[in-house]
Amino acid sequence: MSLVEAWVADLPKVELHVHHIGATAPHTVAALAARYPDAGVPSDLDALERFFAFTDFAHFLRVYAAVSRLLRTPEDVYELTIGNLLDLARQNVRYAEVTVTPNGPLACGVPRDGLVEALDAVREHAAREYGLVVGWILDIPGHPGPPAEVVMDLCEHAPPEGLVALGLGGPETPRPQFADYFARGRALGLPGVPHAGEAAGPASVRSAVEDLHAVRIGHGIRAMEDPRVVALLRERAVHLEVCPTSNVRTRVVDTLEEHPLPAMLAAGLEVSISSDDPPMFGTTLTEELLVAARLVGANEVPTLLGNAIDASFAPNDVKRRYRSELRRAPGPAVP
Length: 335
Fold this sequence. Notes:
The protein is α/β, with parallel strands linked by helices. The protein has a single domain, classed as TIM Barrel. The chain is built from 17 helices and eight strands. The protein has an eight-stranded parallel beta sheet, with helices on both faces. The chain is globular and about 45 Å long. The chain starts with a helix and ends in a 7-residue tail after the last helix. Its cofactor is Zn(2+). This is Adenosine deaminase. GO terms for molecular function: hydrolase activity. InterPro entries: A/AMP_deam_AS, A_deaminase_dom, Ado/ade_deaminase, Metal_Hydrolase. Belongs to the metallo-dependent hydrolases superfamily. Adenosine and AMP deaminases family.
């Protein structure tokens, strides 16, 4: 392990863009796949690795949906989620906002109350045992009408403890048809954090800002294709959750060396680093921060982490505590 790798591993971290299903360790996915073979997910680890070799973004969405079908009881939800949060805690993550798309588990038989109780129990366990503060983002799976109403029903009538925002996944075309849902979210005090600007171009980013009033955007990297959209992001101070390896694994960016992160920072955009679906993409938050260090320099890593806590929906006392810990951390351990 190099000096920089050891330094990044030891840093206290913040994770803003990690998916509940997509953060599941392969051995947990394999165990659930053996329990529910009809889901179509391999239970052999080598086969599972091949299953996660995505050909494009649409293929990734199909695989993600298949893995979602592995959650059929509240106990499944608890088992999966506790493993995810333990993986984050082992990377010295102090605060995480985890995106949960409830439609799959609910459609597969998890009762609404059972889902919420499992999330509440896991969140309490993570705070008590790991010192990890967790906020939940409930994510609309990219379809208006009944699928969106499933999510809004939870937000409005049975939210889990620690619900902090409303998200939007699925295909990333401009989506003004979701404006009413995000207005309902804002009425509940839930800011909008949709995905945009990864699988689709800068028009999707503009729509997320102007139609959905996004305060943060998942990815947003293709805003760089339109200077007017870059200017809009600066003007509105919209924060971008950048996940470099995800962008390569979903075939949006050819190589990590070609990732637009340096250009985004040079353009004055508000950016942090996240991991998205780390086991599916063969990465971790620690590795994503190392990628950032290679692209923009190790000195920028604490700044990116500070950006993350500033853009988070953490309580003010959690932000102050994290900022204090980050200030006390050693500087970059470069030769």
